[in-house]
Each structure stands twice: as structure tokens, then as C-alpha cells.
Amino acid sequence: MDIIVCLLLFIGLFFFTGGAVGILRFPDFYSRLHPAGKLDTLGSLLAMTGLALFNLHYFSLGALLTSLKIILILVFVFLASPTATHAIVDAGVRAGLAPWTKGEDRR
Q1: What is the pLDDT of residues 23-51, one digit of tens each?
Q2: For the whole prediction, is pTM greater than 0.90?
């Protein structure tokens, strides 16, 4: 069980790191939102699943309820993160923010 928990936490950390690198490396607003939305959602899904499993190490009713609360938070994040990313992209489009093209400078 501990191996599965550690594996989930490290894979979640890997996706969080990939999202952070993507945010720093991509050239414009729209392409930076992709790793922010996708990788952070997957990283939190894996890491919090690992935490919910770790919490069940000493099984009791309290631990089970706490793990269920963590899973409910995961469901909320899984639904809210893509919705928020879409709303932010929509706000950028409405504000007239032009997407980056290959010939432009990356500032």
C-alpha cells in the first residue's frame, strides 16, 4: 500500500512540475493555460488519491470519512478546473488578446 501511495504522489508531483515548466516555457497566454489546466488537474488527481489511500492506512470510520471528503474535493477540482480554464480563455478572446504566431517574438 505504501508503494502505491508513494508512486501516486511522485507521479502527481511529476505532472505538477511539467505544468510549471509548461507555464514558464510556452510563448503566450493561450498556450500557457493548457499545461495549467490539464497537468495541474491530473497532478492533483493523482496526489490527492494517494493522500486518500494513505489516510486509510489505519482503517476507522473517521479515516474513511476523511478519505471520502478528499475524493469529493477531487470531484470538485476535476469539474471546476477545466471550467475555470475555459472561462479564462473566453475572457482573453473577449478582451481581444491575439494568439501567438510562429513569426512573433516570445516576450
Answers
A1: 999 888 888 888 888 899 999 999 999 99
A2: no
Q: How many other C-beta atoms are found inside a 10 Å radius of the C-beta of residue 66? A: 15
Grid coordinates standing for 105?
517574438
DSSP code string of the chain: -HHHHHHHHHHHHHHHHHHHHHHHHSSSHHHHHHHHHHHHHHHHHHHHHHHHHHHTTS--HHHHHHHHHHHHHHHHHHHHHHHHHHHHHHHHHHTTPPPP-TTS---
- Find, among 66, 68, 20, 74, the residue nearest to 45 by Cα: 74
- Give yes or no for a contact between 73 and 41, defined as CB atoms under 8 angstroms apart: no
Cα–Cα dist 67/31, whole Å: 34
Per-residue pLDDT tens over the stretch 48-71:
999 999 998 888 899 899 999 999
